[in-house]
Write a structure and sequence with these properties.
Elements (H helix, E strand, L loop, with lengths): L1 E5 L4 H17 L4 E7 L4 H4 L4 E7 L1 H6 L1 H6 L2 H9 L6 E4 L4 H9 L5 E3 L15 E3 L7 H13 L30 E5 L11 H13 L3 E4 L4 H11 L5 E3 L5 H10 L2 E4 L3 H8 L4 E5 L4 H4 L6 E5 L23 H4 L3 H14 L1
Parallel strand pairs: 1-2, 1-4, 2-3, 5-6, 7-8, 7-10, 8-9, 10-11, 11-12
Helix pairs in contact: 1-7, 1-11, 8-9, 8-14
Pfam family, one: Glyco_transf_9
Keywords: Cell inner membrane, Cell membrane, Glycosyltransferase, Lipopolysaccharide biosynthesis, Membrane, Transferase
GO biological process, one term: lipopolysaccharide core region biosynthetic process
Length: about 350
């Protein structure tokens, strides 16, 4: 059987879909997947051994340069790639307006969520074969159910298995020798309300160093790199990493002793790599999108307003709209949580 998956973004959401492919491969021997994904995250589908071909979109760039996209031939090339092969089943596992547009461009019927289950209406109109899934479940559970319904098997009772192995991925070339024992501190996040204070990260570096760990601080852009450098100032064995490919970060993550993470895509990478990780939550609901898998724990704000799903903190005591609830999570609490994970591994 040959299946086309349509799931474009974002990093964590893509990782949530990997266990569904593992289920399908166990239930349908010899099954192969092609996957349509945004070019920024093209590495993620390739981590799963059942994925044979990746077809990339460039939604953000296309949206910024609409006229060039329509006249320059890139959209036509994507349409050709999208329809170049025959598939037994095509499944939209994202079910929003962007992925629904891709589903419309794909010739033939597509499976996707029905009106009651769909995240963004009227995306459901793109699907000939509607699927009903309870929205108020963790994303990994929903992805497993969507693919099981599309392919006609029962979701296995076994634990979710990402099936990714980064041990054969090359480590990046760095301007320092990679420490033997190190932790990944994923300090960045796309929302202000997901960020933990810089001085807390600095205190955490000192707690890690007292236990003999070095610290690596990954970055995705210049602003994050400057933040990482500021955190790393407190100790010479704390390193702000240059911007690296996702595969390089994955290789570093799998070799790490553990990780402490903000609520961001790389936190889910720790789960995929089975690296012991404590992830900090305030604005979002861990029951729906929290890190999921072996050796993963959450430290969740106990504020009555959490999760608020706001990008700026509305509380009157908030300084520059920074999250008050995240300030309440102390470095000592966080370090104790990670130590418990490392001891239990």
């Amino acid at each position: 059987m040959k299946v086309l998956i349509i799931k474009l973004t974002s990093m964590g959401d893509l990782m949530h879909a990997l266990p569904a492919l593992t289920d399908a491969a166990q239930q349908i021997p010899g099954i192969e997947f092609d996957w349509v994904v945004d070019e920024a995250f093209a590495a993620v589908p390739q981590w799963h051994p059942a994925v044979k071909k990746v077809i990339t979109t460039s939604h953000r760039r296309w949206k910024k340069n609409t006229w060039q996209t329509l006249t320059g031939g890139e959209l036509r090339a994507f349409y050709r790639d999208l329809n170049a092969d025959d598939y037994d089943v095509v499944v939209d596992m994202q079910n929003n307006l962007k992925s629904a547009l891709v589903s419309v461009l794909r010739k033939g019927p597509v499976y996707g969520l029905d009106k009651a289950s769909c995240r963004e209406r009227p995306a459901h109109l793109a699907y000939k074969f509607p699927i009903s899934v309870e929205p108020q479940q963790h994303a990994v559970v929903r992805m497993r159910q969507i693919l099981a319904q599309a392919l006609g098997y029962q979701v296995p009772s076994s634990a979710a298995n990402y099936k990714a192995d980064f041990r054969n991925y090359a480590l990046p070339e760095l301007d320092f020798d990679l420490p033997e024992r190190y932790l990944m501190f994923v300090h960045n996040a796309s929302w202000l309300t997901k960020l933990w204070p810089v001085n807390y990260w600095q205190q955490l570096v000192l707690l890690a160093r007292a236990e003999g760990f070095s610290v690596l601080l990954p970055c995705g852009n210049d602003e994050e790199w400057q933040r990482a450098r500021q955190i790393a100032l407190v100790d010479e064995q704390a390193f702000a990493l240059p911007r690296l490919s996702l595969n390089h970060v994955a290789a570093l993550m799998q070799r790490a002793s553990g990780a402490i993470c903000s609520d961001t895509g790389l936190a889910h990478l720790a789960a995929v790599a089975s690296t012991p990780a404590l992830t900090l939550y305030g604005a979002t609901d861990t029951d729906l999108i929290g890190t999921y898998g072996k050796h993963q724990q959450h430290l969740v704000s106990d504020f009555a307003c959490a999760p608020c799903y706001k990008r700026a903190c509305p509380l009157p005591e908030a300084i520059d709209q920074a999250p008050v609830c995240m300030n309440a999570l102390t470095p000592e609490q966080v370090w104790h949580g990670l130590q418990t994970l490392l001891t239990a591994k």
